[in-house]
Amino acid sequence: MPSPSQRVLEWFGVDDTWERPRPVIGRQDVVLAVSVEAIGLLALELVRSAGGFEHTEVPLWTQWLAVSSGAALLLGRRRWPLTVAVLAALHMFVAGVTMPQVMGQMSLQIVYFVALLSGVAWARDRRAMVVVVGTIVLFMFAWIGWQFAVGSAAQEWIDEDQGTDQVGLFPPIPAAVGITLVVNAIYFGGAIIGGGVSWRAARQRDRLQAQATTIAAQAGRLRAQAVVDERLRIARELHDVVAHGVSAMGIQAGAARRVLDRDPDAARTALSNVEDASRDAVTQMRRLLGTLREGETHAPQQGRTTDAGVCDLPGLVAEVSGQGLTVSLDVVESQADAAERLPRGIGLAVYRTVQEALTNVRRHSTADTVSVVVRVDESHPTAYAEVEVVDNGRPRHGTSGSGLGQLGIRERAATHDGQVDIGPRVTGGYRVRVRYPLGAGT
């Protein structure tokens, strides 16, 4: 168990390897020094005008020099903290011996306090700080002790020769020196503790900033990796769709070849199907290549459901419903069986969007009701397929996600030139809506 002295040294960071950066003398240092000097000189003249310096014999210029030189020390309080602390201690001693009434002015007391506090707060070498500040404090209290000893002797002489009456528990002169000792203990102790608090706060801020930078960098890498993984997963699914299209072309071409001579109309129909399948396969392959253009790493194999589509949504909704969550599904078609005629890639995208949205509701929302609406309109030239998932809940505290699920929705929509609208509604709840254009090249 560490001793009290070890705890104190640890609190002041004696063995800490972190070094607080020392800024150059800046505008705020100049403003502070000039402000303290102006206020100090003004206060000096006000006290003089009130007759407070009747027993001060030093010249006026010396008094002004003491105030101005003390304020000038504040310029380097952050750049050279220990040097400024030593110079401030010497300034206090010299001014206290030669002109104690000037040294006792509030402006100079602020200078000495700030200088000592800055020495503790900004010193990079913590061991040197302990030595320097400890020496200053010992010197100052030795000086006060000397004054106390002299004050006690003087009081004994006054009591013996003049018989001064004692009003309180303590004789006047030792009482005056004693209260000086208490005030200085609070004064120096406050400066030292304040400096230690400032140093520890700066160290904590630096560590938090370093942690935030590390977390941001890691989040960026995870986000980039998630993008790559999602694109590769989409690419594999699209590959399956394209492979299906190529197989269909082969079957239709074979059928056309067999009936070409005896049934030209059937052959023409089969060749038309080949043309449609080839166009769809080329479009999907182009998107596949575009998806893979940034996929430089190998993603782990994941379970895929490349045959899923709008027709599979009832099963998904039934699986998610229950345990306090009611999910409704509506498929709105402008023409009969329009949803069944959706391209496989878009049908799969709609399915995955609903799947991810419902998963997010389960994990991160207080909702008890979810509405899933799929709209398919084949009217040209504005043909589209749209999926909308709306809930009535609020974000559940302590369950914030990584955002990778929504990132996957956006990536999948971008693959099909879709438009995404994700976010809270003004009337309450949360909405995920994705619209995919239909038509040539879909």
Automatic annotation (TrEMBL):
Keyword Calcium assigned: no
Domain Signal transduction histidine kinase subgroup 3 dimerisation and phosphoacceptor: 230-295
Domain of life from the UniProt record: Bacteria
Entry's Gene Ontology cellular component terms: membrane
Swiss-Prot/TrEMBL keywords: ATP-binding, Kinase, Membrane, Nucleotide-binding, Phosphoprotein, Transferase, Transmembrane, Transmembrane helix, Two-component regulatory system
Catalytic activity, EC: 2.7.13.3
Protein name as it appears in the record: histidine kinase
